Amino acid sequence: MILEPYFIFKGKNSKGMGILISAMPDIVKPQRREAEITIPGRNGVLTIDEGTYEAYTLSVACGTRGTARLSEIASWLDGNGDLILSTEPDKVYRARISNAISISDVIYLYTSFLVQFKVFPFKYSVDKADEELSLTAPDTIYNQGTIYSEPIITVYGTGNVTITIHGTAYAISEIDGYVTINSEIQEVYKDSTNKNNSFSALDFPRFQTGANAISWTGNVTRIEIKPNWRWL
Fold this sequence. Notes:
The structure is a single chain. With 232 residues, the chain is mostly beta strands. The protein has two domains: 7-125, Elongation Factor Tu (Ef-tu), domain 3 (Beta Barrel); 128-231, Sandwich (Jelly Rolls), CATH 2.60.120.860. Helices cover 3% and strands 57% of the residues. The strands form three sheets. Strands 1, 2, 3, 6, 7, 8, 9, 10 and 19 form a nine-stranded antiparallel beta sheet that branches. Strands 11, 12, 13, 14, 15, 16, 17 and 18 form an eight-stranded antiparallel beta sheet that branches. A hairpin with a 2-residue loop joins β7 and β8 (88-97). The radius of gyration is 23 Å and the shape is globular. The relative contact order is 0.17.
């Protein structure tokens, strides 16, 4: 059985908006961000790999029967939001509309237009809540994605604590109840209070692909983790 293609953007399904899709985008692997430097007297080039990836564009060829909902569709297909494609229903992209949508009359009472989504280079799980973890003792967790993740870690306890993840130590001082380490935005906070000064490490925590051992020292009652698994 061939399912009718669709996309979900900002929580709305294209089928519910009366959109017919004639072409879905191919699945794209993002381009790795690298720089090549030519050094006089040396053969070839020196490649500097930042370990980061470029954003890219996914294009969806769309159409509608009639023009009654075009204004509503144009208002919806604007700005930023989460994007789910029927070709990968278990993954979500962080996307924004990157083109001005041009409407053209192709056949009588049928209009067509192209939607171009500029997406961040990684895909995330649709069911993020199923990935969340709560640890009360040291453990090993496994990265389900295909690249390192940037987790959100909330440490519950008091005083000075050191968390060790995959052999790297992260120290947090003067915890009063709990504190959150958000690797994605590189901030440490308790609710709306900034706690960056209490965090001591060379970088923010990452979960590498494969196994990641987690342990800690200090007065910790539990650690809650939103791992933010990612796929290329």
